[in-house]
Design brief:
The complex is a heterodimer of chains A (about 525) and B (about 325). By secondary structure, chain A is mainly alpha-helical. Chain A has 15 helices and no strands. Chain B is of the alpha+beta class. Among the domains of chain B are: about 110 residues, Sandwich (Immunoglobulin-like), CATH 2.60.40.420; about 90 residues, Cytochrome Bc1 Complex, Chain D, domain 2, CATH 1.10.760. Helix content of chain B is about 35%, strand content about 20%. The longest helix of chain B is centred in the first third of the chain and has 34 residues. Classes of the chains: A mainly alpha (about 525), B alpha+beta (about 325). At the A-B interface, helix 3, helix 5, helix 8, helix 9 and helix 10 of A face helix 1, helix 2, strand 7 and strand 9 of B.
Chain lengths: ~525, ~325
């Protein structure tokens, strides 16, 4: 008889005091799902308001608070923790053949920090409201804002430590707990991308923490750091903020890229094309990603020569992403492809990521950015990356590893319908915004020129499809817990250590010590023959 | 402006705007070239290599160095070429011609104020001549704003405490929208302005009709007298201001600074920040007495002060 699964123990305390990385992953999953719906609710308010050019649903302040809440909650309490904290936690130890993370107690503490910081932030946003946008630009946030800026900043500050600790944990785990034979070049690409992400989490998040403290200090004690009337420099804030927040975009997208590499190979039943290039490109993105923050400031008043350098570096950072997209397509050549729900999510990711990536280059293009900056073009671009692609990656991971996490199968058809609806709904929502932006509609506008109405109505119509599509998995995945068939060990016939242990895995993952004597993605180098 | 049910491309009010559009169109074409192969390959492979379909799956490649290098180097070269084109345009957009007509802009929550060289002042509307380079020198009285002219394809953030610059040359007369593009608080969406481009003759007529007694420089001179600036500047107790503009100034800490608009402004608002070598720090701040518009007038006057002992000291 095999060891009992990690879900075996009952009782709330068995969850709240757990040090099992898999249980902590489940806690994270519930937490980020909650924040995803809260942020989504605010997004719905915004899209309903923008159906008409006049402000009829919300007041100007109400609208400003809605998009601030949407941004703050989605960025720090859904997107950043989503894949690293849920799937990174669940999968990294298993994928490298370890029993747990390197620091299990720190891992649990990270979850409490995220939950505590998140609830505190949410409370401040709901009770007091903040109208600065998630970017907290100074001196608006320090001297002119009428909301609870300091409270929200505290919440984000606390949650930042969750990021830092998770990053430290993953780096330590990958370095020290790999099973014998699990060399670096045998790591699954998801682990590579989590490793690159963790480097960013550990190096960039402290800068955000420092910046937020300075904002709070200026707000509370009138210490002149950013406000020119106190002798400060408002651009300093933007430099510090984007030094964190641009790499933060890679915190959101790199893990999703790792997921897609797993989904493509598992669906194609074939080793990834150009393993070392895909792995190295994750690290390249993490490194170059630290050198492009100035492309948020082409019109902010930074030196022209700085802008030229940042523009060139921004083009360079796109190349590792292009490498990934090309290698994913090449992987399908001579594959043995099963078109599953996770595969459709992977396709959704690739489609949305390419559109988002290419339009990002328009913004790196200096002369085009002078026009498109701070318009809906930017809104559309970063939603394609941070929402379209990153959430498609998250949902793809959810649908791929759900049988492993819960031990249950879900109806494939519903998963496929959701993936297609997300792709269509997303494009209908955000593609019109590229046109709106190029026409000149600025972002964060509560009311707008009636000329822009038709495209805004299209966008809101798409958003309603998207809302249904994002809500659907909640029902059929939860339903599968009750009615779903029991999942076999390896429902996708995929390679990888996680598919060699029961679904759901036992508490210590592996019943016998793991010795790795095979390459990553060890699908047969020749065509799949009949397995018997 | 004409009513459009569905507008898909913004108006072009300058030659620069036309160049930007061509850059965007050219770049789009290049991107299509890089992206279409991915989509075609994806659909082709999905179709051909579905499980259960007979296809040649032998000799599956694991990697291929020449192919990898191709799709690294081609996009690299492509991006370099486009970068150079856009850098050239960007350089033009950030370098105003020396003979540009200068208009002073002051932004505040939530309005735009403009001052013409002739002393004319406008709020939320600015009249400019067609076919003449216009340079906007901009400053904010509170938070960061951004002046955005979609028809000219340009914008620039307007900062508190520091002048920023935008220039353009509109070719066609007409009325164009201007927006605040940088989120600036409650009524951000209402911080709109109109750009009225007039034929040069019409612009002259407009200036006449809206003329004031004094142009910007003499308004600055009035302020200079009113606030008694000359009672110290012009004596031995304060540095002389004649011919100061665009000269290097030696500071008390030994460093040097160029006496540009920002320096002149800072020395009025925060005089203790940069003390001139050899003078006692006796000047009080004028930030409570002068708003940014008044400072712009004073700076205009200081810039126009000729070098040498042209003004006799009292």
């Amino acid at each position: 008889m095999s060891a009992p699964s990690y879900l075996h123990k009952q009782g709330l305390m068995s969850w709240f005091l757990t040090q099992d990385h898999k249980r902590i992953a489940v806690l994270y999953m519930i937490t980020v799902t909650f924040f995803f719906f809260v942020g989504g609710l605010a997004a719905s308010l915004i899209r309903i308001e923008l159906v008409t050019p006049n402000g009829d649903l919300l007041t100007a302040d109400g609208y400003n608070r809605a998009f601030t809440l949407h941004g703050v909650i989605m960025v720090w309490f859904f997107l950043i923790p989503s894949i690293p904290s849920v799937f990174g936690n669940f999968l990294v130890p298993i994928m490298i053949g370890a029993k747990d993370m390197a620091f299990p107690r720190l891992n649990l503490f990270s979850w409490y920090l995220l939950l505590g910081g998140g609830l505190f932030t949410l409370l401040a946003l709901l009770l007091g409201g903040v109208d600065t946008g998630w970017t907290f630009y100074t001196p608006l946030s320090t001297m002119f804002s009428n909301g609870h800026v300091v409270a929200v900043i505290c919440g984000v500050f606390i949650a930042g430590f969750s990021s830092i600790f998770t990053g430290i944990n993953i780096i330590a785990t990958v370095h020290t707990l790999r099973a014998p034979g699990m060399t670096w070049m045998r790591l699954p690409l998801f682990v590579w991308s989590m490793y690159a992400t963790s480097i960013i989490l550990v190096l960039a998040t402290p800068v955000l923490a420092v910046t937020l403290i300075l904002v709070a200090a200026e707000h509370l004690f009138q210490i002149g750091v950013f406000d020119p009337r106190l002798g400060g420099d408002p651009l300093l804030f933007q430099h510090l903020f984007w030094f964190y927040s641009h790499p933060a975009v890679y915190i959101m997208i790199l893990p999703a890229m790792g997921v897609i590499s797993e989904l493509i190979t598992a669906s194609g039943h074939k080793r990834i094309f150009g393993y070392s290039f895909v792995a190295a490109s994750s690290v390249a993105i993490a490194v170059i990603g630290f050198l492009v923050w100035g492309h948020h400031m082409f019109v902010a008043g930074q030196s022209m020569y700085a802008s030229l350098a940042f523009s060139l570096l921004s083009f360079m950072v796109s190349i590792p992403s292009a490498i990934k997209a090309y290698n994913w397509s090449a992987t399908l050549y001579k594959s043995d492809l099963t078109v599953t729900a996770p595969f459709l999510f992977a396709l959704t990711f690739i489609g949305l990521f390419i559109i988002g990536g290419v339009t990002g280059l328009f913004l790196a293009l200096l002369a085009a950015d002078l026009h498109a900056h701070d318009t809906y073009f930017v809104v559309a671009h970063f939603h394609y990356i941070m929402v379209g692609a990153a959430v498609a990656g998250y949902f793809g991971a959810l649908h791929f590893w759900w049988p492993k996490i819960t031990g249950r199968l879900y109806p494939q058809l519903w998963g496929k319908i959701t993936a297609v609806m997300i792709f269509c709904g997303f494009n209908l929502t955000f593609f019109p915004q590229f046109i709106l932006g190029y026409l000149g509609m600025p972002r964060r506008y509560h009311t707008y020129d009636p000329d822009f109405q038709f495209l805004n109505v299209l966008s809101s119509a798409g958003a309603s499809i998207l809302a249904v599509a994002y809500a659907l998995p909640f029902f059929y995945l939860l339903g599968s817990l009750r009615w779903g068939e029991r999942a076999p060990m390896n429902p996708w016939e995929a390679a990888g250590l996680e598919w060699r242990i029961p679904s759901p895995p036992p508490t210590h993952n592996f019943e016998a010590p793991v010795i790795v004597d095979f390459e990553a993605y060890d699908y047969s180098p020749e065509a799949r023959r009949d397995p018997l | 402006m004409k009513e459009h049910l569905l507008r898909l491309w913004p108006e072009q009010a300058s030659d620069y705007a036309v160049s930007v559009d061509w850059l965007v169109i050219g770049f789009t074409a290049m991107m299509v070239l890089f992206v279409v192969p991915v989509f075609v390959a994806l659909w082709l492979f999905i179709w051909r290599y579905r499980r259960g379909r007979k296809a040649d799956r032998d000799h599956r490649a694991q990697s291929n160095l020449p192919i990898e290098l191709t799709w690294i180097i081609l996009p690299f070269i492509g991006s370099l070429v486009v970068f150079l084109f856009s850098a050239r345009l960007f350089f033009i957009a950030r370098t105003p011609p020396a003979d540009a007509m200068e208009i002073q802009v002051t932004a505040r929550q939530w309005m735009w104020k403009f001052q013409h060289p002739g002393g004319q002042r406008e709020i939320n509307t600015v009249h400019v001549p067609a076919r003449r380079a216009v340079k906007l020198t901009m400053i904010s009285e509170d938070v960061i704003h951004s002046l955005f002219f979609p028809a000219l394809r340009i914008k620039q953030d307007v900062l508190p405490g520091r002048y920023s610059m935008l220039w353009f040359q509109a070719e066609h007369s007409g009325t164009y929208e201007a927006y605040c593009a940088q989120y600036c608080g409650t009524d951000h969406a209402a911080m709109l302005a109109r750009l009225v481009v007039l034929d040069p003759a019409d612009y002259e007529r407009w200036l006449q009709a809206n003329g004031t007694q004094a142009d910007l420089i003499s308004q600055g001179e009035t302020l200079y007298r009113q606030f008694g600036c000359g009672s110290c500047h012009g004596t031995a107790s304060a540095p002389p201001l004649e011919g100061l503009y665009n000269q290097q100034v030696k500071l008390a800490d030994g460093s040097q600074v160029l006496a540009d608009d920002d320096y002149l402004r800072e020395s009025i608002m925060l005089p203790q920040q940069k003390l001139v070598a050899g003078y006692a720090p006796i000047m009080p701040t004028y930030s409570n007495l002068l708003d940014e518009e008044a400072v712009q007038r004073l700076v205009a006057y200081l810039r126009a002060l000729p070098a040498g002992p042209a003004k006799e000291n009292p």
